Amino acid sequence: MKPWFKRSLFGFAGAALLAGSLAGCSSHRHGWGGGYSEQDRAEFRARMVERVGSKLELDAAQKQKLNVLAEKIQAQRTALRGGGDPRAEFRSLFAGAKLDQERAKKLVDDKTAAVQSGSPEVIAAAADFFDNLNPTQQQKVREFMERGGRRFGHRG
After folding, report:
1. Distance CA 57, CA 71 (A)
2. Rounded to the nearest 10 degrees, what angle do helices 60-81 and 38-56 cross at?
3. What's the predicted TM-score (pTM) here?
């Protein structure tokens, strides 16, 4: 295969994977999902902070830092989803006789820009939260991550 063709093929596969992942995630109605009001998302965030806070035995200041982190993640997710329906946006790329490569590239560029612009705030909030945990709490977070992100106190 010619190098430019191989690069184009990998680029398209990456774009399709990114867009497909975004579209798949957008249809789930778990806590952060689309279709929920801002009040519903705030209630979910409060329940999550309370649940994680009780498992990690967080004090009030640590819970506040976790809440800030949850808000930053939600804002990043909202920016990544954009204003419209990600599934419809992705399907529209395939609506014509040929794949709309320019729109596909713009879609990938927009999502990449959203990640790049919001990531520093998310990273700073995550660092502020994690760095203010005591060693026992930090170890619990590491164990949670080792289990692949399954819930704290998950049975089975």
Report:
1. 20
2. 140
3. 0.64
